[in-house]
Amino acid sequence: MALSTKEKQKVKRFVRSLEKIRGRHTELVSVYIPAGYDLNKIIQHLAQEQGTAANIKDKTTQTHVIDSLERMIRHLRLFKRTPENGLALFSGNISDREGKTDIQVLSIEPPQPLKIRMYRCDQTFVLEPLREIMDVRETYGLIVLDKREANLGLLRGTAIQELTSMTSAVPGKTKAGGQCLHPETVVHLADGQLLQLEEINIGDEVLSYDFTKQTFVPSKVLETWEVKKEKVYTITTEDTIVASGDHLFFLADGTTKAAEELQVGMQLLNGNGQPASITYIVIEEKEITLIDIKVENENFVAENLVVHNSAQRYARIREEATKEFFNRIGEAANKAFLEMKEMKGILVGGPGMTKNQFLDRGFLNEQLRRKVISVQDLGYTGDFGLRELVDKSRDVLAKEIIIEERVIMEKFFKLLATEREKVAYGEADVDRAMLMGAIDTLLISEALPDEKVEAYEDKAEETGAKVMIISTDTGEGEQLRDLGGVAAILRFALV
């Protein structure tokens, strides 16, 4: 379980107090006892070190080390057994005055099990194992995505960290992209009329080929739109047509090829249902506005050639771009999460069904897929989406400190808005409530100086008030800091 902010504060204050101490020589003793280790073996080892210390040449250092070990042995004999999570002990001359000796033993039972056994004499205490305990051990991976963008992040304790942000090349669902024809392209209507493409309207009926019946039929126009292109292909058979490189043409055998794939000599299907041989192709690099239409039967006759409308190929382009984007997200997730041994789970979210497609189609490594513990519908992606994902996964994260802090702070702010007399904030207001024994839950910002935090904790213990140390990693925590760093939910209203 991740450390609560209060537990982290306790270890942090202890470490800070030891960081200030400096030995004259290698005379400060650090001992780490792992969880479950036999305390008697540690005592025997320290007694042996006392004998070794008698060989230290500098008499002052020798005396300090021997005395420190002796005091540490006495301290350990106060314990019947090794505490549940082990024990860290530090002993030495803590006096900062030259020539004055003050041998003390300082110890802490860590909030998480120690896995290291250590004995060390140095000029400073060895504190790195305790600093590692302060680091959040439990981490959640975050993936937020839709077809436009994706964001990967981490939830460490109360902090949400964005790792990666990426955008896709997936075309929009409406009039962006597509394969198009020149506005002056002649289109054959179902009633035999000929109109330029730019004159075609939704609802018009154009001539279309029914490949099942092998005959021409009417087909209604469903959409029309304009698109800018930077390259066009002029294709000549008996007639000439100007198209974008991705516009599909039907060959005489019923298959399709894009304009950019056509070659001189290929047989296209013409408006009489017969082959029409390509005699010439010209490619021009220029910006031009083209037009395309979507029809019910997905093809129409233009310049006496049967051409595809955009729907099918455009859908294929979207599908291929989506697949490429999902692969990129999967690769980014592998890089970010696969080697993260301490990661407890992965939360996935996003608008619509994109997130489900990403998971169900196997784009996420199976090892990571098994770690997905929450899939949420979101209104956003980006940084806000990451925060929304965490917020909507409360049931999964109910035991995590970020949710615990957010719930209590939301309760405080709700009371502040609706029943002001049932809360206090700011030092003067809180101190008054403390004196009257009115505080049920004391909320302390981690931004407060250590000495103030300790003072408030002592007062809370005297009155039986619960204490929560609130981090500044959340919006609510920042608000508490800005309200003076301390607040309280009261047992009874103060007038």
Low-pLDDT residue spans: 173-178
The total number of structural domains is 4
- End-to-end Cα distance, whole Å, is 41 Å
Placed side by side, the strands forming the largest sheet appear as 7-6-5-20-21
SS element count, helices: 12
The CATH homologous superfamily of the largest domain is termed eRF1 domain 1
Helix content: 25-40%
Shape: elongated
Gyration radius, in Å: 37 Å
CATH class of the largest domain: Alpha Beta
Largest sheet: 5 strands, mixed
The average pLDDT value, as a whole number, equals 89
CATH architectural arrangement of the largest domain: 2-Layer Sandwich
Q: SS-based structural class?
A: alpha+beta
Q: Write down how many β-strands occur, each being a DSSP E stretch of 2 or more residues.
A: 25
Beta strand % = 25-35%
- CATH fold annotation of the largest domain: Translation, Eukaryotic Peptide Chain Release Factor Subunit 1, Chain A
Would you summarize the structure shown here?
This protein has 495 residues and is α+β, with helices and mostly antiparallel strands. It contains twelve helices and 25 strands. The chain has four domains: 130 residues, eRF1 domain 1 (Translation, Eukaryotic Peptide Chain Release Factor Subunit 1, Chain A, 2-Layer Sandwich); 103 residues, eRF1 domain 2 (Nucleotidyltransferase, domain 5), CATH 3.30.420; 124 residues, Hedgehog/Intein (Hint) domain (Endonuclease - Pi-scei, Chain A, domain 1); 90 residues, 60s Ribosomal Protein L30, Chain: A (2-Layer Sandwich), CATH 3.30.1330.
